[in-house]
Specification:
Layout: E1 5-9, H1 12-16, E2 19-23, E3 26-30, E4 36-40, E5 46-50, H2 58-71, E6 77-80, E7 100-104, E8 111-113, E9 115-120, E10 123-128, E11 138-141, E12 144-146, E13 149-152, E14 157-160, E15 169-173, E16 178-182, E17 189-192, E18 196-199, E19 203-206
Length: 210
């Protein structure tokens, strides 16, 4: 079986104890003058996680071992509930239809990609969301919530029953999962304190889908 992404979610309780976050790729060249030239290699971040810290009991270790076998190490992807960044709004606030701008209507386009924008001090980056949580997406056109849409939970594309009018702001709120894979083919465990089992490191890396 070749690589793909299985519709299974990594155990949330274990994810809560994990560490990780976004990473970028930048090539830094130091010139003879001592000045730097920085080249941006990636338009979007790629997230990395270490879930070893969340494996605190033998039961959780059993869950991870089963999950590792199911996805065959690095071979197959799965969905990860990032405990620190999993929604369109701040913190743990439930999504509202006005959380994120995802486009502007032109009277003809019906499909819009879910996105989350991170902004600070006038600078901003837009993150493509491909794996919204089923049932969590809410949408608004021109500031008014609408239910006349469908969403593909494998692409993050929202399709409206009728095209939003020209110049009308299209917004959405949602919760989302991160498509990832294990970044190792070997799950190394050890026994500690006679009864407690532990994993030293278990890295995950985001699978970029677009």
């Amino acid at each position: 079986m070749s690589g793909g992404i299985l519709p299974i979610v990594f155990p949330g309780a274990i994810a809560q104890g994990s560490s990780g976050g976004p990473s970028y790729s930048t090539t830094v060249v130091t010139l003879a003058s001592g000045h730097e030239q920085r080249n941006i290699n990636w338009a979007q971040a790629r997230h990395r996680y270490n879930v070893a810290r969340g494996i605190t009991t033998a039961q959780r270790l059993e869950q991870v071992v089963a999950h590792f076998h199911a996805v065959q190490g690095r071979a197959l992807g799965f969905l990860y509930p990032d405990p620190l960044d999993h929604g369109s709004g701040p913190g743990g606030i439930e999504p509202t239809p006005l959380d994120q701008a995802i486009g502007t209507g032109d009277g003809a386009t019906t499909a819009f990609q879910l996105r989350k924008t991170y902004a600070r001090g006038g600078a901003e980056r837009s993150r493509t969301i491909t794996r919204p949580v089923p049932g969590s997406v809410r949408c608004a056109v021109n500031g008014t919530e609408t239910a006349a849409f469908t969403v593909d939970t494998t692409t993050g594309i929202v399709s409206f029953a009728s095209a939003p009018g020209a110049g009308l702001l299209v917004q959405a709120g949602f919760r989302f999962l991160v498509p990832v894979r294990f970044d190792t083919d070997h799950l190394e465990t050890s026994w500690e304190a006679w009864a407690a089992q532990a994993v030293a490191e278990l890295p995950l890396i985001e699978i970029r889908e677009c």
